[in-house]
Amino acid sequence: MIPTIARPLAFTIGAAALLSVQIVSAASAPGLAAPDRDNVEAAFAKRSGYSPYAGRNFPSRPYFGDTHLHTSFSMDAGAFGARLTPEDAYRFAKGEEITASMGERAKLSRPLDFLVVADHSDGMGFFPLINSGDPTVMADPQGRRWHDMVASGKGADAAIEIITSFGAGTISEAIMPVPGTRAYQGAWEKTIEAAEAANDPGRFTAFIGYEWTSNTGGINLHRNVIYRNGGDLAIQMEPFTTQKPLGSDNPADLWKWMSQYEDKTGGDVLAIPHNGNLSNGIMFPTVEAFGKRLNRAYVEERNKWERLYEVTQTKGDGEAHPFLSQILKPGTKVIWTGRSPKPPRCCSASMRGKR
Is residue 30 domain-resident? Predict the structure, then answer.
């Protein structure tokens, strides 16, 4: 009896022998022509391997997650009704059932593989102070106004005022958490602690991160900053903000901060820009940026820190706007038109969409 493992080989040998007998038989049979050589060679043609996966040396398993999630620690999300914390967000991402901000029970159809809680660095932890009626907030006319608006069910109106005031730089310094204050330090520590507690190597990755929200004059140059390392490094430097004198609205200054962080801690950080469709063409300048002409150093520096781009979110698909791009053909469809503010003086004529 032929062992099972040898059956394919035995079949191949038997088939070849049978074909050989048929060829000889056909050649010697009266009235039949000799077999064509090409047909014979075709029968024994060399074939590629049957397994398409043989020889692959690249990752083939996709991972699903979110690199841009806000909680109540963000000014805008908090004012629009978000009441959940970074800890709640990670629990939800890992597949737990939670009570959403509006009171409904919520659960994902399947857990995520990773999550970045990326609350805004400017005013991090601001809204919990507004919502709770913190004494410092209530002592400030602007803070009391926003607290009363939210308490009376006008949270959306408060959110618009807060976002507008932030873009104009008119939020009262007395109520704005900034790096170095107890309120800001506490919010950043809680963000890190939530990520550290949720991280489960091999099953779920909880990235530490924040959003740097340059929005001067309504020009959206937002970036999500993501840490590759753990809380022991991330805690050593508080996030970079856009409000002077501690921060800057220039992306080049964010890159300098990222370089300083890596030099100080030995860690790694990445910036992911988003919503260039609301930047009035400034997100991807081709001539000059912030008053300086583009050069090789600028391109190399940006390529070092910003290797990815967030293509889509609720504010639209953010590659380009037809009024700003000289590349898009007439009639090209875009999802978001939105508000296109007047370009700042830093921009060249070509960046203003002139033909």
Answer: no
